[in-house]
Amino acid sequence: QADKEVLVAHIKELQKSDPVVKEQWSKFTDQEGHGTKDPAKHEFAFLQRFLEIHKTISVSMPVQCTLSDFFRETCKTCPSFRLAWSMYRQGMSDIKTDDPSRHPRESLIGALDFMGQAALTIMSMGGMSVNADECPPGKRFKADGASGLSQEKLALATRVKEFQKLGEEQTQMWRAFSARYGPNRDPARFEEHQLREFLQLAAQPPVSQPADVLDASCVTLYSQQQLLPPNGSLSVAYFRFPVR
Length: 244
Prior knowledge:
Elements: H1 2-17, H2 19-32, H3 44-53, H4 67-77, H5 79-92, H6 105-125, H7 151-164, H8 168-178, H9 192-202, E1 207-208, H10 216-219, E2 237-238
Antiparallel strand pairs: 1-2
Helix pairs in contact: 1-2, 1-3, 4-5, 7-9
């Protein structure tokens, strides 16, 4: 019995440390062990035989799927996901293509997180709920919005996204505002009062001044946030933001 326990522990350790051995064990048990994967449920001779011949067992390793591969395949099979990804990308990214391989991993994770939170909020509003006993500890969604987006915040974030779609100037205005709080540009990650503040500022008319009146303070966040168009011209409207 002690010898068997040693073999069981050894095979388990081999599977943890070597994915090839894991596949070999799976194939071996399918062919000769009735599909039973737990080493402890096999006889000593069975375990010993595997250790003797496992290097001769040929296996095909599964192809590793990257996050961009997942996005690409899901976009092909799910039109609603493709549209949601495109809308998120247009509102949140500087990269002018929906090709997920052109976007950093952090952007893809952010898109999934935003879409997941939005879906959870809408489902909870529709009366759907999650059985708390089925959720892993620390990963339970609270329908009151504590771990997702509240109805109010979702509406505010949507308004900010729609505002950015009005044009390049509106997109630059959001980028200038969000930069005061860090590199993140996803409206869903901002507080409700911050989103309201931006929407109030966005509703104010811009202050126009010719280029020769603008000084260095207008190009920095010293007293105002300068908004430059793609051509870099200074003879454009700029927006007054409170200094942080």
